Structure formats: structure tokens, C-alpha cells
Amino acid sequence: xxxxxxxxxxxxxxxxxxxxxxxxxxxxxxxxxxxxxxxxxxxxxxxxxxxxxxxxxxxxxxxxxxxxxxxxxxxxx
Length: 77
Description:
- By secondary structure, the chain is mostly beta strands.
- Helix content is about 0%, strand content about 45%.
- Strands 4-3-2-1-5 form a 5-stranded antiparallel β-sheet, with no helix packed on it.
């Protein structure tokens, strides 16, 4: 599926800055962003986007290197 302008925005938009748990890693972090990610199916040819899915960006509480996870792994501690 390609990028879809009709795709609903995930419900976390108002929760940026909130502390959450990443169930996939067990880590606790601050929700920084939830953005669509489109895989490029033909390297260098942006006219052919592959699958699109949401990616959650988290930062450790107190700062540090951000990491990503899938939306299904985000829980509220």
C-alpha cells in the first residue's frame, strides 16, 4: 500500500512529551513523534513507494539517543 492521504492520524498526536513504555524492549521513554514511514520499493525511485506504516519515536527520560518502535508496543506506564 502506498502513502494514503485518507489514512487516519494515530491517537497519540496530543500525547507528545508524555512518558510511555515500549513493551517491545521494556524501556520507558518520552514520546517524541508518531510518523508514517514508507519503504521505497525501488531504490532511488521515489515514485514507487512500498508499504507504509506508523513508526513511534521515543527518547529516554532525561535525554539520550532516541529509538523507534511500533505503535502496538506503546503502553502508558
